[in-house]
């Protein structure tokens, strides 16, 4: 009840301040009192004056490292190679929230191994993380470089398709994943995942088109 008492005290002080500063006569106080009482009623109805206060820390905006995504990258794309050391260091930096250096490390690796598609895929994902999931021109370029070097790369096609889907480019993502799924063995878990993803994308496309048609028909 402490909160309600404080609110009532503030309302009383507010009314007094209005009366003194504006020199409102006592007979005209009714509208002011009504407005303040309405505010108090709303507070009593929807507020929670009896709850204890809870400190809230500010959001630092630090990107969270996606362990599942990194594991998927290692599972479908990477083998022990000269790229591994760069990817391990990049992942460690990203885990600590240092997404900028995580991307810079991979750029250093690419100066040493410019034809390694795994490094380009890693850079594309690192730039995505640095941009909080935004497919920037630099990230898009990294994925396309991986595909230029190895058009059949499972990792490049999977992660570029994922980035396109998350950026709302559903048709491009669907086409890329359909082609990839067609090349994979029927009993492969990744193929089943891609088929499920394509079905979800088709549903999203249909929903978007239905909403668009509804907007066009609206007066």
UniProtKB/TrEMBL annotation:
Keywords per UniProt: Membrane, Transmembrane, Transmembrane helix
Pfam family, one: TPR_16
InterPro entries: TPR-like_helical_dom_sf
Keyword Membrane: yes
Residue stretches spanning the membrane: 26-45
Organism domain of life: Bacteria
Listed name of the protein: Cytochrome c-type biogenesis protein CcmH/NrfG
């Amino acid at each position: 009840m402490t909160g309600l008492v404080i609110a009532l005290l503030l309302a009383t002080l507010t009314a007094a301040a209005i009366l003194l500063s504006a020199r409102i006569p006592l007979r005209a106080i009714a509208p002011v009192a009504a407005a303040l009482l309405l505010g108090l009623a709303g507070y009593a109805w929807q507020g929670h004056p009896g709850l204890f206060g809870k400190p809230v820390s500010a959001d630092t905006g630090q990107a969270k490292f996606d362990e599942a995504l990194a594991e998927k990258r290692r599972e479908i794309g990477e083998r022990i190679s000269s790229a591994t050391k760069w990817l391990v260091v990049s992942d460690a930096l990203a885990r600590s929230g240092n997404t900028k250096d995580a991307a810079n490390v991979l750029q250093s690796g690419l100066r040493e191994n410019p034809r390694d598609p795994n490094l380009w895929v890693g850079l594309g994902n690192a730039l995505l993380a640095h941009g909080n999931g935004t497919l920037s021109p630099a990230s898009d370029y990294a994925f396309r470089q991986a595909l230029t070097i190895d058009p059949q790369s499972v990792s490049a096609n999977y992660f570029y398709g994922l980035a396109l889907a998350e950026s709302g480019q559903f048709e491009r993502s669907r086409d890329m994943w359909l082609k990839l799924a067609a090349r994979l063995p029927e009993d492969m878990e990744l193929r089943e995942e891609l088929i499920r993803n394509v079905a979800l994308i088709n549903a999203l496309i249909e929903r978007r088109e239905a909403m668009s048609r509804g907007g066009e028909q609206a007066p």
